[in-house]
Amino acid sequence: MDAWDIVASVLVVGIIVVSLLSNVVVLICFLYNPEIRKQVPGLFILNLTFCNLLLSVSNMPLTLVGLITTGHPGGNHFCQIVGFLDTFLTTNSMLSMAALSIDRWVAVVFPLSYHSRIRHRDGVIALLYTWIHSLCFSTVATCQSWVGYHRLYASCTLCNGAGTQFVVFTVALHSLTFLLTLIVLCVTYLKVLKVARFHCKRIDVITMQTLVLLVDIHPSVRQKCLDEQKRRRQRATKKISTFIGTFVVCFTPYVFTRIVELFSPGYISPHWGVLSKCLAYSKAASDPFVYSLLRHQYRKTCSLLANKIFKRSSLNSSSLRMEISTRRSNNFNTQNNVQLPTNKPLGQ
């Protein structure tokens, strides 16, 4: 192993640890809070969490083995199974992000009719489509023997197939997953941002009218209101940028490398291939924070769980200390033959 392989291995280990811990926390919050389970976005987040967890325990460790051994990890049949999972889970997670963005767009643009437009049944149908879509591409790739160990990415994934069919399949796969999801994310979230800015502008106009009427208001209070308006606009822009930005940063290098690999006969550095694969893996570690753990409902659930755990451990430790203290006192009295006073009347 050279220095780059060591750095890449440490990076993959870090991604695995963060992805496992964060996605397990999201899963615990989903199981603990009934309100989250009742919401339609909870179905999409559960599906996304499932894909991220399975990717973290199947594909990522095998990539780590490929980096350490600098060779083919496992047998051909096992690698084909992992390659099937790589195509299925990556496609499924992308489509889940698209479904989440559509749900947010409906919730913001049509807030009064959201529950009639997006029902639990609609969420189940959307999830069913993501699974069928993902299974079709991954099954075709496996049946055509287009999955296996790829040295450029040090992982079991789509391999360079021969002929025009593989080129058409790869272009269709990335067009109907990555490109489709990117278009949906941009269209829906930009519309959400437009609506959010419109509401912020209305609130700002009302606030400014109120400030004009309050002639005797202190300048510091006036400045505080203006600063709050600015922070509100920045928060909306920051959230939308995070949703779209993390998707682009994590998946674009990998998809771009795949397309270049099809049409360019030139040499592609294995370092770049592994780095692009690590960036794609890092999306599984960032999704819990982008879509779940930074939201108020999940933070509140995590806080309740933490307080419950720490309170129970505190009660157990206090009772243990009392028990130890009682035992020590009894041992001391026994060793020194100390007799405790009785409550007999005087003269007996």
From TrEMBL:
Keywords: Cell membrane, Disulfide bond, G-protein coupled receptor, Membrane, Receptor, Transducer, Transmembrane, Transmembrane helix. It is a multi-pass membrane protein. Gene3D superfamilies: Rhodopsin 7-helix transmembrane proteins. The keyword Transmembrane applies. Its main location: membrane. It is found in: Cell membrane. One of its GO terms (molecular function) is G protein-coupled receptor activity. GO terms for biological process: adenylate cyclase-activating G protein-coupled receptor signaling pathway. SUPFAM superfamilies: Family A G protein-coupled receptor-like. One of its GO terms (cellular component) is plasma membrane. Orphan receptor. Displays a significant level of constitutive activity. Its effect is mediated by G(s)-alpha protein that stimulate adenylate cyclase, resulting in an elevation of intracellular cAMP. This is G-protein coupled receptor 26.
